[in-house]
Design a protein that fits this description.
Elements: H1 12-17, H2 20-27, H3 34-60, H4 67-84
């Protein structure tokens, strides 16, 4: 099935990712566990909030590229305070 531009879908990434699920499920016991699936929304919450904020910034007309570095610095400080507390 072609894309909107008429080119076929790239199948390389799909072919590369197909062997990952069986190999990772064999390598670790907890890969396909219920807790693993519950962990996915916890991990994408921060990125979702950042994406909504960046969407508003881009719609207004300003582009701020420092969001990723501010997030990284915030997580490093939070990790440090978590270990030291």
């Amino acid at each position: 099935m072609p894309t909107a531009t008429g080119r076929p879908w790239p199948t390389g990434p799909l072919i590369g990712h197909v062997p990952l699920a069986p190999s990772l499920s064999i390598a670790t016991d907890s890969f396909l566990s219920f807790r693993s699936f519950l962990n996915i929304p916890d991990q994408i919450t921060v990125l979702g909030i950042m994406a909504v904020g960046m969407t508003f910034v881009i719609l207004i007309g300003g582009i701020d590229l420092s969001v990723g570095s501010v997030l990284a610095l915030s997580m490093m400080v939070l990790g440090y305070l978590n270990v030291e507390a």
